[in-house]
Amino acid sequence: MTRHAIVTGASRGIGRAIALGLAERGYDLALNDIAAQDGDLGETAAMIEALGRRCVRVLADVSQLEDCRRAVREAVEGLGHIDVLVNNAGILRLAMIEEMTPETWDQTFAVNTRGVFQMTQAVIGHMKERRYGRIVNIASLAARTGGPGQAHYSASKSAVVGFTRVSSMEFAGHGITVNAVCPGIILTEMGKNNLRDPERVAYFEKITDVHRLGQPEDVVGPVAFFASDDSAFVTGQALNVDGGIFYS
Ligand SMILES: NC(=O)c1ccc[n+]([C@@H]2O[C@H](COP(=O)([O-])OP(=O)(O)OC[C@H]3O[C@@H](n4cnc5c(N)ncnc54)[C@H](O)[C@@H]3O)[C@@H](O)[C@H]2O)c1
Question: Which among 41, 126, 138, 200 is least buried, having the fewest CB atoms inside 10 angstroms?
Answer without folding.
Answer: 200
